[in-house]
Amino acid sequence: MKKIIECVPNFSEGNDTGIIEKICDSIKAVPGVKLLNVDPGKATNRTVITFVGDEESIVEGAFQAIRKAQELIDMRKHKGEHPRFGATDVCPFIPIANATMEDCIACAKKLGERVGRELNIPVYLYEFAASAEHRRNLASVRAGEYEGIADKIKLSEWTPDYGKAEFNERSGNIAIGARNILIAYNVNLNTTSTRRANSVAFDVREAGRKVKNEKGEEVHQPGTCKAVKGIGWFIEEYGVAQVSMNLTDIMQTPIHKAFDECVKSAYTRGMRVTGSELIGLIPLQSMLDAGKYFLEKQQRSTGVSEDELIKIAVKSMGLDELSPFNPKERIIEYLLRDASAAKLTTMTLTAFANETASESPAPGGGSISAYVGALGVSLATMVANLSSHKPGWDSRWKEFSDWAEKGQKLKDELLTLVDEDTAAFNKIMSAFTLPKGTDEEKKQRKQAIQDATKYAIEVPFKVMQLSFESMTVIEQMASIGNPNSVTDAGVGALCARTAVYGAFLNVQINAAGLDDKGYAAQKIEEGQHLLNTAIALEAKILAIVQDKIKA
User: Fold this and answer.
1) Taking phi first (over 0 means left), then psi (-120 to 50 degrees means alpha), and beta for anything else, what does residue 394 get?
2) Are 305 and 353 in contact (CB under 8 A)?
3) Distance (Å, rounded) from C-alpha 31 to C-alpha 185?
4) What's the burial of 444, exposed, middle or buried (CB within 10 Å: 0-12/13-18/19+)?
5) Scanning 82, 262, 328, 409, which has its CA 20 to 30 A from the CA of 502?
6) Which ranges of 252-305 would DSSP assign to H, the alpha helix?
7) Element of type H or E holding 125
């Protein structure tokens, strides 16, 4: 599968939109590159640009951007709040999909060699690409900033990895590296004091601060958050001081923990956190984890939709305080998502029904089965959420929240299969259009048809499995859920069984056209067992529902 590598260069210009646009244009002109986000900062006089591509295109896109920045940005005139030492200050590569850190290291070295040779900009490799341990930390590489380059570059321990060991007065230096996903994140305080913002930053960041012990000796006091770098600054543009952080390992310190630690520190120092600001992009899971974290603090069900979790995260951390927060523009996975792959599930109910009723053979019974299954488990999830918030059942909120989470997961997987079933049908149709002139072409065409047919069996079979699995959630909600919603669980059972049966019909008809009769027979046998079990479980659930209606 195609490798996807992310590049996040930071340019020392945040005010001149003309310069920023020209740098972006140089990136967009490279085939195979997709520009994801442009985030300029006026007070920092710095712009963070995010784009993705494969190993070849990502390096070319980065080089063209660095070359354009060299042409347009003069470091002799640059002033800004953020530490910097070059026109293109840093340029990291990050593995996103099917790529490794070794791939990113190779990209960093390839780019660094070319920048040093063709642009005569001194290059330092950092993080995983670093040539020495003392160069791994970006703060160490950039120490002294632009103003200190002329002297620092003469030191043997700071000879550039690429390019001449000479001060490039116009462009400065550049740090090129390979790293894991980093979240650049600022927390807003109700103060204008940089010193007080720094006190919070020192409480939170891993490096902490230096203090004197009872003997008067200077010792290191670590902060509360691992893998967090931070400083305090005043942003004139917003009229507030911020704690500016880089979260370098979100497994150790997720964004919601960094936020809450700032809240605690600020409160003890007589301040209040008013909101926060994301710089650049964020992984989807970080937002979902944050949403669940804040719901759990309220003892509310976390089994809500992806959209709702993101909304809770945004409001809880005040990510929209300084400017609107649009998840479609700030979450990496949303920017990479192929909109055409979710044609049906993004339609209105009316449009979906009209599309199904049209003369087109797809969507057909397979997609409808998946959708009916999704509706069935959605009803059970609703019962779970209602039960978790039922007055008098407060002590059971976690129990029902867990069931709701299971339901949401099954619902999301079934919705994906609504479009996937249509895609499977289209693959068969495409295979039949392949040329069949030569013997080799006939062979390739036949194999393509067989491969597509097998996939058209696997998709509805997955619908059967998920729909049957959802009946466990439905049964529990009929048995222990809010009794006022027991009929909703009953309708959910009817939907789930219909989904299993409908998907099995698709498995049967596609299996008839498969040459691999052993595989086909196995799937039909397994499918029949699933259907029989689902019918029996449906009867059991409906009996529970009827008993509760009569009670």
Assistant:
1) alpha
2) no
3) 31
4) middle
5) 409
6) 255-268, 284-297
7) strand 123-127
The full set of domains in the chain, from first to last, is: 4-178 (3.30.990.10), 183-336 (3.30.70.670), 339-550 (1.20.120.680)
- State pLDDT tens for residues 438-492: 999 999 999 999 999 999 999 999 999 999 999 999 999 999 999 999 999 999 9
- The 10 Å Cβ neighbour count of residue 274 is 15
0.90 exceeded by the pTM?
no
What pLDDT digit, counting tens, does each position of 200-214 carry?
999 999 999 988 888
Phi and psi torsions of 170, nearest 5°: -80, -45
For the CA atoms of 21, 23, 28, 29, what is the dihedral angle to 10 degrees?
Answer: 110
DSSP structure string for 29-81: TSTT-EEEEEEEETTTTEEEEEEEE-HHHHHHHHHHHHHHHHHH--GGG---S
Extract the tokens encoding 376.
């069935």
Q: For the chain, give percent helix, strand, coil, nearest 5.
A: 55, 15, 30
Instruction: Please name the residue that has the structure tokens 């340029």.
Output: 91
Residues labelled as active-site residues: 82, 421
Q: What DSSP string describes 449-488?
A: HHHHHHHHHHHHHHHHHHHHHHHHHHHHHHHHS-GGGHHH
**Among 292, 469, 465, 460, residue whose Cα is nearest residue 365:** 460
Q: Six-digit token pair at 346?
A: 């993004």
What token pair was written down for 252?
């150790």
φ and ψ at 306, to 5 degrees? -55, -45
Q: Is 218 helix (H, G, I), strand (E, B) or coil?
A: strand
Q: Evaluate whether 505 touches 439 at the Cβ level (below 8 Å).
A: no
